[in-house]
Design brief:
The structure holds 2 protein chains of 2 kinds. Chain A is α/β, with parallel strands linked by helices. Chain A has 6 helices and 6 strands. In chain A, a hairpin with a 4-residue loop joins strand 5 and strand 6 (173-197). In chain A, helix 2 (57-68) crosses helix 6. Chain B contains 8 helices and 8 strands. In chain B, helix 3 packs parallel to helix 6. The longest helix of chain B is centred in the C-terminal third of the chain and has 23 residues, at 168-190. The termini of chain B are far apart. Classes of the chains: A alpha/beta, B alpha/beta. The A-B interface holds A 48, 50, 52, 54, 56-57, 80, 83-89, 91-94, 108-111, 114 and B 33, 35-41, 129-131, 158, 160, 162, 178, 181-182, 184-186, 188-189.
Chain lengths: 221, 236
C-alpha cells in the first residue's frame, strides 16, 4: 500500500512533464514591406461570422500575450476596445472583408481621426479554429465504498489551422498572410487515477503564429 | 427488505435532484459597454419616446432540458439607444408617449420611436451548435413635425458567443450585448440612407429655404403653418 501511494505520488509529480508531440508548420507570404515604430500599435481581430466557425477569443488573447512579451514587445490595442472606438464599423456584419475596403471606410466621419488618435498601424485578422479529427479508446471510472479509480485508455487527435491577414492602415493595403498549422494526439491513460498526456496543437499554432507575426511586422523594410 | 428501502431512498433522491435541476432558473441581467457610433448625423431635432415596455424589457422562457431563463435586457438596451440616438440626430429630447401638443413639438422636427418586437436565444443544448446565440427584432418608426409617418422599419440584430461549461449566463449576456450592437449598427448606418428619410430631409430643407425667401413669400408660408393647422403626433 505504501509503495502504491509512493508510485502514485511520483506519477503526480511527473505529470506536468508529460506532453504529447505536436507537428507544426508555419508559412508566410509577403505583399509589401513592413516596419513599425515604437509608438505605433497593432490590433488583433478575431474574424467572426454568423456560421458555426468563429476564431476563439482565447486564441487571439494567446497571440496578444506572446506579442506583448519577449525581447521585442509590440504595442497592442485590445480588440474589444478597438471595436468600441470604431463602432459600428468593425462589427461582424459591418467589418471590411478586404484591404480594398479600407479606402471607403476612411471616408466615414471620424474613422480616420479615431484611428490616428490611437496610432494603429496594422490590423491583423486572425481566422481559423482547432477541431478534433479523430478519437477513440475507452475509459471507465468507478467509485464505491471500497475505493475507486479509472481504467482504460482514450485518445483524440486535434488539428489546429489558423491564418493571419495583415493590413497596413498607413498605405491602406494588404501586406501579407501568415498561416500556422499544427497537429497532435492527446492521450488519457487510466491507471487508477487518470493520467493525461496532452498535445496542445492550438497552443503550438498560437506561439508559432505569434512569433512569425512579430518577425513579419518588425521585419523587412 | 433493507435493500428495497435503500433502493427506494436512492430513487427518491435521484428524482428530487432531477426535479430540482429542472426547476432551476438562470437569471441574466444584461450588461455591457455602450459605444458611441461614428456615423453621419441626421440633421434633425428629434423627440425620442421610449415606452415602459422598451425600458424594462425582460424575456422569460422555460426549456425542458435546461430549466428556466429570465433575461433582463431593458436597462442595457435603453442605455445603448440613448447613446445611439444622441449620435444619430443633431439634437434629441426624450418625450412622453405621443400625441404631443403643438407647443411640445415647437422645437422638434419629428419623433423617433424604437420598440422591441421580439427577443430569442439558443443554447448549445438546444441548437446542437457550439455556441450561444441571441437575436432581437427592433421596430423603429419616425414621424414628422405634423404627425405624418415618415416610415417604419424592422431591424434584426444577431449575436453569438462561445460558452464554457459553467458560464452559460455570461455567454447569453455576451450574445445579447452583441445582438443589441448589431441592431444598433444597422440603424446607425442604414437609417439615413432610407429613401423615406432622404425625402423627408429634402422636404424639410426645401421648406426651410422657402421660409428664408423674400418677406412677402415667407409670410404666406408661415400663415399656412399656424398652430391651429398643425396636428400633434398620432398614437405610435
Amino acid at each position: 500500500m505504501v509503495s502504491l501511494m509512493r508510485n502514485l505520488l511520483i506519477a503526480l509529480v511527473l505529470l506536468p512533464l508529460l506532453s504529447g508531440c505536436v507537428a507544426s508548420r508555419i508559412e508566410q507570404s509577403r505583399d509589401s514591406s513592413t516596419g513599425i515604430e515604437a509608438d505605433e500599435a497593432i490590433v488583433l481581430l478575431g474574424r467572426a461570422s454568423y456560421n458555426d466557425k468563429q476564431t476563439e477569443e482565447g486564441f487571439t488573447e494567446c497571440i496578444a500575450d506572446v506579442l506583448a512579451g519577449g525581447d521585442n514587445p509590440i504595442r497592442l490595442i485590445g480588440q474589444n476596445q478597438f471595436r468600441d472606438d470604431l463602432y459600428p464599423w468593425f462589427e461582424p456584419r459591418t467589418a471590411p472583408t478586404s484591404a480594398d475596403e479600407l479606402g471607403q471606410l476612411f471616408t466615414e466621419p471620424g474613422v480616420k481621426e479615431r484611428i490616428a488618435s490611437v496610432n494603429v498601424r496594422y490590423l491583423a485578422w486572425i481566422d481559423g479554429d482547432t477541431i478534433t479529427v479523430d478519437k477513440g479508446g475507452s475509459m471507465s471510472c468507478t467509485i464505491s465504498t471500497f475505493g475507486g479509480g479509472c481504467f482504460g485508455m482514450s485518445y483524440w487527435e486535434e488539428d489546429a489551422s489558423y491564418e493571419a491577414a495583415i493590413w497596413d492602415l498607413k498605405t491602406m493595403t494588404s501586406t501579407g498572410q501568415i498561416s500556422a498549422e499544427a497537429n497532435g494526439t492527446s492521450y488519457l491513460a487510466g491507471l487508477i487515477i487518470p493520467i493525461p498526456i496532452l498535445a496542445r496543437p492550438g497552443n503550438a499554432a498560437c506561439k508559432g503564429l505569434a512569433n512569425q507575426l512579430r518577425e513579419f511586422i518588425v521585419g523587412e523594410t | 427488505m433493507l435493500q428495497f428501502r435503500a433502493l427506494l431512498r436512492q430513487s427518491f433522491y435521484v428524482t428530487a435532484m432531477l426535479l430540482f435541476l429542472q426547476s432551476c432558473t438562470t437569471s441574466v441581467v444584461v450588461e455591457g459597454t455602450v459605444p458611441t457610433p461614428l456615423v453621419s448625423v441626421i440633421p434633425a431635432r428629434m423627440g425620442v419616446y421610449y415606452s415602459d415596455e422598451f425600458r424594462r424589457f425582460k424575456h422569460e422562457e422555460v426549456f425542458r432540458d435546461s430549466g428556466g431563463w429570465h433575461i433582463d435586457l431593458g436597462k442595457q438596451n435603453l442605455r445603448f439607444f440613448q447613446n445611439l440616438t444622441k449620435s444619430l440626430f443633431a439634437e434629441i429630447q426624450e418625450v412622453h408617449q405621443p400625441p404631443l401638443t403643438t407647443e411640445e413639438m415647437r422645437d422638434l422636427d419629428g419623433v423617433f420611436i424604437p420598440s422591441i418586437e421580439k427577443y430569442g436565444f439558443l443554447t448549445p443544448s438546444i441548437s446542437g451548435l457550439k455556441f450561444y446565440s441571441a437575436s432581437i427584432e427592433y421596430r423603429v418608426a419616425m414621424y414628422d413635425k405634423v404627425g405624418t409617418k415618415v416610415g417604419d422599419w424592422n431591424i434584426v440584430g444577431y449575436g453569438k458567443s462561445e460558452g464554457g461549461l459553467f458560464s452559460s449566463d455570461e455567454a447569453i449576456n455576451e450574445a445579447t450585448v452583441l445582438a443589441i450592437r448589431d441592431g444598433g449598427a444597422r440603424i446607425a448606418i442604414e437609417l439615413i440612407d432610407q429613401p423615406a428619410v432622404q425625402a423627408w430631409l429634402q422636404s424639410r430643407h426645401e421648406s426651410f429655404e422657402s421660409s428664408a425667401g423674400p418677406p412677402g413669400v415667407a409670410e404666406n408660408i408661415e400663415s399656412s403653418e399656424t398652430p391651429e393647422n398643425v396636428d400633434g403626433v398620432p398614437d405610435a
